[in-house]
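Task card 7
Instruction: Convert sequence to structure tokens.
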Amino acid sequence: IPVIFGHGGFLRIFMAEQLGFRLVREGIRIDNTSITRFEYKDGLATFHRINDIDHLTGSNLKQPII
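Output:
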């Protein structure tokens, strides 16, 4: 299983492009150390987890869907 570590800014742009969104500064939130899981095949991404922070114990961050 390939694993990619990256900057949230890149991931926000990638997600917006793949989901057909017009990137808006507040439109997609990616928290530090969050996990976003996706599969990429034939130029299309299928997202399974976005901005998952469940692994952060005692976190007071709210879990946005996107």
